[in-house]
Amino acid sequence: MTTTPALPTPTTRRPRRAGTRPLLLAAPLAGLAVLAAACSSTPSATSTSTSAPTTSSTAARPITLAAATLPGVGSVLTGPNGRTLYYFTADSPTTSNCTGQCAVLWPPLTVPAGAQASLGSGVSGALGTARRADGSTQVTYKGHLLYYYQGDTAPGQDKGQGLDSTWFVATTSTAAPATTPTTAAGGSGGGVGF
Length: 194
Fold this sequence. Notes:
Layout: H1 20-39, H2 45-50, E1 63-70, E2 74-78, E3 86-88, H3 101-105, E4 110-111, E5 117-119, E6 127-131, E7 137-141, E8 144-145, E9 167-169
Parallel strand pairs: 1-5
Antiparallel strand pairs: 1-2, 3-9, 4-7, 6-7, 7-8
């Protein structure tokens, strides 16, 4: 009696392509490695360089203040964007009394952490900084905290001059500040020196 050899039974499995399984496992493993590195308590080279002292080359960029001559006002201090800077007579040399909505209308001139402010060529006077209640660092000039006025939309404007008899352009002259404005609210001219 002759027996026939057994035939293989058909299967529903597809044949495996060469190299598929290693690729499928590589992506999740790479993701886990990145996640583990990000959660590691060991500081990376990037985090070390961002916490370097402010005197290093990674320090925040300084801002430079300049002067511009405005008709009827004279030489005024301007911020890095060229817009006129103001001071508020209700402030003390180190404490701002312009917060909340006031600081929206009169944005303080601040410097990023680690940055310094400097005066451009031909501008003299004492620059400093003061810590605001929100923790930011505001620039001072000749003992006055500095602000922009939201109504000034471009360099060369001084629409905030004399507003409420408490806001004045920061002039670069050596004259003492006046106690009353010399112009109508929001007008140009008659700058007050300090």
